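Can't attach files on this board, so I'm pasting raw text. These are the components:
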Amino acid sequence: MPTTTQETNNSWQKDFITLIKQLSHTDRQSLPAVGSSPKELIYKENKLQLFHYKPLGVKQKKTPILLTYALVNRPYITDLEPKRSLVQGLLEHGYPVYLIDWGYPDSSDKLTRLNDYINGYLHRCVQHVKRHAKRKKIDLLGICQGGVFSLCYTALHPDEIRKLITLVTPVDFHAQNGPFSTWAADLDHHNLLTTCGNIPGQLINQLFKTLKPFQLNREKYRQFDHLVNKKENLDTFLRMEQWLNDAPDLTGYAANEFWVNFYQQNYLHKGKLEIDGQPVKLSAITCPVHNVYATKDHIVPPKSTRALSQHIKPSLYSECALNGGHIGAFISLKTQQALIKSLHHFIG
Amino acid sequence: MTTEKNEYATQFQDFINSNVPDEYKEVIQHFQNQGLFYQQLLKKINNDEPGLSDFWNLPQTLGFNTLSDGQLDWLQLYFPQDTDQEKLNSSSLQAFLKTLTDLPGQLQENIRDIQSALQKMNHLYATLSKSALEQFEALKNKCTDPSDEQLCQFWLTAGETAFSEISQTPDYIEAHQKFMKSAHQLKAAQFNFFDTFAHLLGLPSQQTMNDLQKGLHTLRIEFAEYKEQTEATIDELQQTICRLK
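---
Top answer:
Structure tokens for the assembled complex are below.
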């Protein structure tokens, strides 16, 4: 039987008052903690921090895994809360886990280029992890743009990486005529490069919200009975809101290089990308690569990420589909077990 | 019902005035804004009132002021202050734009380009709203006596479908590109404008500041590379000593 508008309004008001009461509760004087798995800082450079997570009481694997997240948003999404933590999942299997936090760039960083991120920051983090773990090679796990950096790095430094995992990582940026690549198509990059300061994180957030404007700006706040009925759900929601609104600015030059070389020209997929004058050929990757993508990803469509298979030798390439969206792929309770199982199977 | 309404309003106001974290207040305000939006939407649908297409207004959906009463919201995202995280407020940007409009030639042309791009986008947003309304009516007509939940789902489907269609049209892509180009051109003009004033006041030019930043950037990298080399050498030596022992 259809619900009347009056009933809908009454039900909404009841839930709204309950939500206010819950958020006013003395237990909630501070935001729910994020990224709380115990870790130590092992390296710091400018705004970048490299962390090593404290191992759990299980038999330890030898090869460390370095997690590399995108410059957009913060890497604590990999350790959002104990039940939704890629980091915890890896620690439980005895992997030594390291994480790069790129930090919050300011105007003094606006000249930072992709070369500085890939051959500079990332390379030095890899060296620190190798020394810290006393290994000659490490495993690299890159997520989204962090996956793109990981691909470039592994292609440029194949001797440093034992195994590479890319998670929801775009390769063919023109795979499905996404809005970003179509909007980028005709922009004059010389003009961009001469005028760029940093790109505000708030602007990038808006661009992502524009991909599904009515869903992401209105619908997600329409119903909240699932939040008021379970404290755990409300905690997760608040953590996600915190993460979504925590968007660092992007350094001007690197952002423009990324916009032009990847979204506009699709150079990585075309095999024409150069970083600091060095050609970046994905075919130069000689280690096993495991490519994990999300079937409902509206930011990085499966077709874009699966294009990686065209560049890596079939004997070295494997992939795994997760039934979720771009972020849900590694934080959803449903997909997380499948993800960890797939990683465990690949890494060994 | 009146008592309930009062209770809702009182609790909301008490919450906003309390010392709970600001993030909670933002969340509650989001829910309240969207709650009011959906209440008005359902009222409008059920009473068959005119003006339903306004409920697919894209700039408002994205949290901006409507283009007619405030174009500045869009511009603020493109012109943040570089020196810190503080964003320009409307009055300072307006003052800046007023100064710019007082200048002849290129700058005025840049602003005109932006306004023209925004007008074009405004027109496209109106087309989007119209298309969404048509799709909504089609969905609604297929269903006899739809519930509020179904109506909200139809509203969402109609909006997202209309957006995905229009956002791929050449007109929409061209309007966006034109807006971004003109925003960047204005930014370039902004640099020149600051440089002119900096020169008059005997302050370093943007180019000088850029050169200094470049120097700092290079030094940072060189230092990090030397440090890395040193640590690698120390590590190698320690290993050699261990082997020799």
